[in-house]
C-alpha cells in the first residue's frame, strides 16, 4: 500500500490526472482510497473543447483503473523518503510472497 | 455486460440512494437514455428506470470512468455527470449505421438531472462509496488468475503456456540458470514474472492491507 | 472466498523457498531505485526517468521523465504508413502499473 500512503501525503496538492482515454484533469487532490480512486476538487479539464460537458464540473471522482499517469509537483515529493519506503515495501512483499505457496490455477 | 438495457426493474437489495423524477440525457444521444425516471444508486450497479415507459438501463461501476457534480451555468441544470468507458448501447442505431467512424474513440457521457438540486451531493457521495466497493481486477466477471494473465497484448495460448512452465520443473529455479539467458530472454522473464506477481497479488492481496500500513 | 482459501493454504504450508526466483526480477527493479530506467507502456508509450518508488503492481513514481509516444499514421489512399514520435518532459510522474509492459534497469536505458 505504498502508493496509497504516498497519495495520502499528496492530499491538498495540485495534480494532473491523465486517463487512459487521454482526458487530462488538473485539480486539487481531495482524497484517495486503497484502489487509488481519486477525488479531485477545483478541477479544470485540459482539453475543454473535447469535453464541453465537464466545463461546469468542479469536483469529480476518478476511477483508479482508468488512470494512466498522475503528474505531481516535485517540491511536494520527498524522493529520499519515497525510495526508502519502496525498499521497505519490497522487503515486506517478498516476505509475504515467500510465505505463500505458489499455487497456479488449474489449467483446463 | 457493462451497460444493460432493461425492460423491467431488476431486484435491487442494497440501494444506497434513490432519486425519483430524475431526467437522464446521454451524449451522443441514445433513445434508451433520455426522459424521466428513477435513479437507483445500488451497491452492485447504477440503475435508471422509467415505470411509465417500462424501460431503463443498468451500468456496472467499472464502466463509469468519472463521475462528478456539475452545477453552475449548465443549460440542462445541475446534474450528476458520468463518463463511461465506451459507447452507450443503441447509439449506433440512433446515430445511423452508415459510417463506422472511430468506434474505439466513442464514449458516452450521461447526465442525471434530479428534480431537487439539493440531492446532488448525496447522490455523488453514494456513487463514490459504491464505486469504491466495486474495484475492477482485470476480468470483471471471473477475476481468476488465468483471466488476469490474458489481458492486453497476450494471447490466451502464451498465457496458458506461462502457467504450465511456472508449474513444471522446466522453470528456471536457480540463479545460475538465469545467467545463461540472453538479455532479451531476461527481459521476457522479467515481464512474465511481473505479470505472475501482479496476478497473485490481485487475487490475494487486497484483504491483507494491514501488512503494508507501515510503508508510510 | 478465494482470499480466505489462499490465506488458509498459506498458513498450512508455511514458508517455502523453492520459488524464491519469482522475486528476482522485482529485485532488479529495487536495485534500480534512484537510477534512470526505461519503461515501455501499452499504447506505444515509452518513459525514461529516475525511479523513486515502485510496488509489486509496477506502479511507479518517476522523476525527470521523458515520454515518447510513437504514432503510426496510415494513409488510406496510398496505403503507406508513416511513423512519428511525440516527446514531452514531466518533472514528477506517477505511472499506474497496469499499463507497464517492460521495465529495464539502467544499463540498457539510453
TrEMBL record, chain A:
Biased composition (Polar residues): 91-100
InterPro entries assigned: LSM_dom_sf, Sm, Sm_dom_euk/arc, U6_snRNA_Lsm2
Source taxon at top rank: Eukaryota
Principal subcellular localisation of the protein: nucleus
GO molecular function: RNA binding
Keyword Transmembrane helix: no
Region listing for Disordered, in residue ranges: 88-108
Subcellular location: Nucleus
Record-linked Pfam families: LSM
Keyword Nucleus found: yes
Cellular component terms per the entry's GO annotation: catalytic step 2 spliceosome; Lsm1-7-Pat1 complex; P-body; precatalytic spliceosome; U4/U6 x U5 tri-snRNP complex; U6 snRNP
Database matches in SMART domains: Sm (SM00651)
Sm domain segment(s): 2-76
SUPFAM superfamilies with a match to the protein in the record: Sm-like ribonucleoproteins
Gene3D superfamilies: 2.30.30.100
Family designation: Belongs to the snRNP Sm proteins family.
Role played: Component of LSm protein complexes, which are involved in RNA processing and may function in a chaperone-like manner.
Name of the protein in its database record: LSM complex subunit LSm2
Protein encoded by which gene: LSM2
TrEMBL record, chain B:
Keywords: Cytoplasm, Nucleus
BP terms from Gene Ontology: cell volume homeostasis; chloride transport; mRNA cis splicing, via spliceosome; spliceosomal snRNP assembly
Major localisation: cytoplasm
Subcellular location field: Cytoplasm; Nucleus
Superkingdom to which the source organism belongs: Eukaryota
InterPro entries (alphabetical): ICln (IPR003521), ICln/Lot5/Saf5 (IPR039924), PH-like_dom_sf (IPR011993)
GO CC entries: cytosol; methylosome; pICln-Sm protein complex; plasma membrane; spliceosomal complex
Family: Belongs to the pICln (TC 1.A.47) family.
Protein name: Methylosome subunit pICln
Organism: Coemansia spiralis
From TrEMBL, chain C:
InterPro entries referenced in this protein's UniProt entry, alphabetically: Lsm3, LSM_dom_sf, Sm, Sm-like_LSM3, Sm_dom_euk/arc
Main location: nucleus
PROSITE patterns named among the record's database cross-references: SM
BP GO terms, sorted: mRNA splicing, via spliceosome
UniProt xrefs under Pfam families: LSM (PF01423)
GO cellular component: Lsm2-8 complex; spliceosomal complex; U4/U6 x U5 tri-snRNP complex; U6 snRNP
Task of the protein: Binds specifically to the 3'-terminal U-tract of U6 snRNA.
Residues forming coiled coils: none
Protein name (database record): LSM complex subunit LSM3
Subcellular location: Nucleus
UniProt key word RNA-binding: yes
Cited PANTHER family: U6 SNRNA-ASSOCIATED SM-LIKE PROTEIN LSM3 (PTHR13110)
A GO MF term: RNA binding
Subunit structure: LSm subunits form a heteromer with a doughnut shape.
Keywords, alphabetical: mRNA processing, mRNA splicing, Nucleus, Ribonucleoprotein, RNA-binding, Spliceosome
Domain Sm: 24-109
Family: Belongs to the snRNP Sm proteins family.
Gene: LSM3
Entry superkingdom: Eukaryota
Amino acid at each position: 500500500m505504498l502508493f496509497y500512503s504516498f497519495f495520502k501525503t499528496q492530499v491538498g496538492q495540485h495534480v494532473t490526472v491523465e486517463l487512459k482515454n487521454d482526458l487530462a484533469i488538473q485539480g486539487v487532490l481531495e482524497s484517495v482510497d486503497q484502489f487509488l480512486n481519486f477525488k479531485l476538487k477545483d478541477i479544470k479539464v485540459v482539453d475543454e473543447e473535447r469535453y464541453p460537458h465537464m466545463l461546469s464540473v468542479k469536483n469529480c471522482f476518478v476511477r483508479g483503473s482508468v488512470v494512466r499517469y498522475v503528474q505531481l509537483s516535485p517540491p511536494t515529493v520527498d524522493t529520499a523518503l519515497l525510495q526508502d519506503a519502496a525498499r521497505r515495501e519490497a522487503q515486506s512483499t517478498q516476505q509475504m510472497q515467500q510465505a505463500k505457496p505458489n499455487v497456479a490455477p488449474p489449467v483446463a | 455486460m457493462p451497460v444493460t438495457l432493461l425492460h423491467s426493474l431488476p431486484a435491487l437489495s442494497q440501494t444506497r440512494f434513490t432519486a425519483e423524477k430524475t431526467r437522464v440525457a446521454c451524449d451522443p444521444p441514445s433513445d434508451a437514455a433520455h426522459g424521466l425516471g428513477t435513479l437507483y444508486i445500488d451497491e452492485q450497479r447504477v440503475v435508471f428506470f422509467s415505470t411509465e415507459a417500462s424501460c431503463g438501463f443498468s451500468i456496472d461501476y467499472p464502466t463509469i470512468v468519472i463521475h462528478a457534480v456539475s452545477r453552475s451555468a449548465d443549460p440542462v441544470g445541475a446534474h450528476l455527470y458520468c463518463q463511461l468507458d465506451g459507447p452507450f448501447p443503441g447509439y449506433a442505431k440512433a446515430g445511423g449505421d452508415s459510417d463506422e467512424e472511430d468506434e474505439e474513440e466513442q464514449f458516452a457521457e450521461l447526465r442525471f438531472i434530479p428534480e431537487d438540486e439539493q440531492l446532488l451531493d448525496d447522490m455523488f457521495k453514494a456513487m463514490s462509496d459504491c464505486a469504491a466497493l466495486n474495484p475492477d481486477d482485470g476480468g470483471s466477471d471471473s477475476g481468476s488468475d488465468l483471466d488476469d494473465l490474458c489481458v492486453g497484448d497476450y494471447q490466451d495460448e502464451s498465457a496458458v503456456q506461462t502457467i504450465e512452465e511456472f508449474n513444471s520443473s522446466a522453470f528456471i529455479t536457480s540463479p545460475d540458470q538465469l545467467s545463461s539467458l540472453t538479455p532479451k530472454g531476461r527481459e521476457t522473464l522479467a515481464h512474465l514474472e511481473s505479470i505472475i506477481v501482479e496476478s497473485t497479488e490481485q487475487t490475494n492481496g487486497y484483504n491483507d492491507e494491514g501488512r503494508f500500513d507501515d510503508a508510510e | 472466498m478465494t482470499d480466505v482459501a489462499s490465506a488458509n493454504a498459506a498458513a498450512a504450508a508455511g514458508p517455502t523457498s523453492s520459488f524464491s526466483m519469482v522475486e528476482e526480477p522485482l529485485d532488479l527493479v529495487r536495485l534500480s531505485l534512484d537510477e534512470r530506467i526505461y519503461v515501455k507502456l501499452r499504447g506505444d508509450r515509452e518513459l525514461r526517468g529516475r525511479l523513486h518508488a515502485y510496488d509489486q503492481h509496477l506502479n511507479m513514481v518517476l522523476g525527470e521523465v521523458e515520454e515518447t509516444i510513437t504514432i503510426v499514421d496510415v494513409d488510406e489512399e496510398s496505403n503507406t504508413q508513416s511513423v512519428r514520435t511525440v516527446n514531452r518532459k514531466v518533472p514528477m510522474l506517477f505511472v499506474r502499473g497496469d499499463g507497464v509492459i517492460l521495465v529495464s534497469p539502467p544499463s540498457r536505458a539510453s
